[in-house]
Amino acid sequence: MKKLGIVGGLGPASTIGYYREIVERYRKENGSDQYPEIVIDSMNMGELVGTIEREDYDRVASLLLASITNLRNAGASFAAIASNSPHIVWDMIKDRSPVPLVSIVDAACDQIVKEGCKRVLIFATKFTMKNGLYGKALTQRGLDWVLPCEEDIEILGDIIYPNLENGIVIPEDRKRMIFIAEKYIARYRADALLLGCTEIPLMIKPGDVSVPVIDTTEIHIQKICEELLLRD
After folding, report:
1. Are residues 179 and 116 in the same domain?
2. pTM higher than the cut 0.85
3. Among 13, 30, 151, 193, which residue carries the largest CB count within 10 Å?
4. Which residues are within 8 A (CB) of 129 and not within 5 positions of it... i.e. 6 or more apart?
């Protein structure tokens, strides 16, 4: 059995979800009583978020590569970053990583293509929405995408951080997020809502809005499990 490495702590609540869901899904799909071998390197979220916000991408890449190296040294044969925003430096780290990596962005965008979506509304952290992380990947695949206006980006960002990043779901914030989603779904005739932050699924579930929800966390976990099963 091979070992999965997770770059975690970005934030802690989603890392817990990754661990739990990977274990449960692996056992179900493997059809046995075996458990996957997993090692987690929990990073300092405050430090990495601050570094990303300063757009010091060389430092972001160095921090992530150090974490991945820790995972390799702990026996991981491949790894995944349990967060969307750090993937902004994906092109800087993918070829320098000491182990193969599973990208949440590639997994999510490939699934969107598979599901036949044409125009995607993107919800994420302020940084992820503003830097075009998912927009660029969707454009490369020939898909349209839309973002909320600047004011609503700020509102969504304040909902996500710090409360949601720490696993705190406030009912009024949930209602507000769904209201904003429906406003843009109607305005732009979006046919899917992409949850481009690993904590948003704590607040929005399939069926909460009038279009399919593209849960990047769920898709990433499924891809990781497929890799685990292939590598056994």
Report:
1. yes
2. yes
3. 193
4. 122, 123, 147, 148, 153, 156, 157, 196
Whether 10 and 81 have beta carbons less than 8 Å apart is answered as yes
Report the CATH number at residue 26. Answer: 3.40.50.1860
Tell me which residue range forms the domain holding 147. 105-216
Q: Are residues 99 and 109 in the same domain?
A: no
Helices 171-188, 150-160: inter-axial angle, 10-degree rounding: 150
* Radius of gyration of the CA atoms of the chain, in A: 17
User: Count of CB atoms within 10 A of residue 1's CB?
Assistant: 12
Q: Can you spell out the DSSP letters for 115-141?
A: HT--EEEEE--HHHHHHTHHHHHHHHT
Distance CA 80, CA 111 (A): 17
Closest-CA residue to 178 (of 196, 154, 159) = 159
Q: How far apart are CA 164 and CA 4, in angstroms?
A: 26
**Cα separation of 196 and 186, whole Å?**
20
**pLDDT per position as a tens digit, 31-45:** 888 999 999 999 999
Within this chain, do residues 138 and 72 fall inside the same structural domain, yes or no? no
Alpha helices for the chain (secondary structure H): 12-30, 45-53, 57-73, 90-93, 104-115, 126-131, 133-140, 150-160, 171-188, 216-231
204: DSSP letter: -
Tens digits of per-residue pLDDT, 121-142?
Answer: 999 999 999 999 999 999 999 9
| C-alpha span between 134 and 113 (Å, rounded) | 13
Q: Decide if 83 contacts 59 (C-beta within 8 A).
A: no
Pairing of strands 144-146, 213-215: unpaired
